[in-house]
Amino acid sequence: MNIFVNRPFQLSSAAEQAFSNSTGNQSVCQLHKQGRVTNGFKYYEVRDYVIRQALKTARDEQATWEKIIQNLDLIESKVSG
Fold first, then answer.
1. Which of 18, 36, 54, 56 would bridge 31 by S-S if both were Cys, CB 3.0 to 4.6 A apart?
2. Whole-angstrom Cα distance, residue 79 to residue 63?
3. CB 5 within 8 A of CB 69
């Protein structure tokens, strides 16, 4: 795989793992049934969404490699921070 495919998938996987770890491997539905508030878990969900949007942008016919790299670097800085 090249960097334009590999990096977003790695970042997405990290976001999914962080979400899973923060919920104790339970689904949000299970947490709601237990009466737990899940607002804090939205952060992890948004991280994954942003990364997936970057992948979608990368598939755009008008996207330039420079723009894709800039977006990936920005996302990576936000995700790892």
1. 36
2. 22
3. no
Q: What is the pTM for the complete model shown?
A: 0.55
> At 55, which helix (H) or strand (E)?
helix 42-58
The 8-class DSSP code of residue 41 comes to G
Per the document, the length of the chain is: 81
Distance CA 73, CA 75 (A): 6
Phi, psi of 35 (to 5 degrees): 85, 15
CA angle 45, 50, 52 (to 5 degrees): 95
In the 8-state DSSP scheme, what is residue 39? G
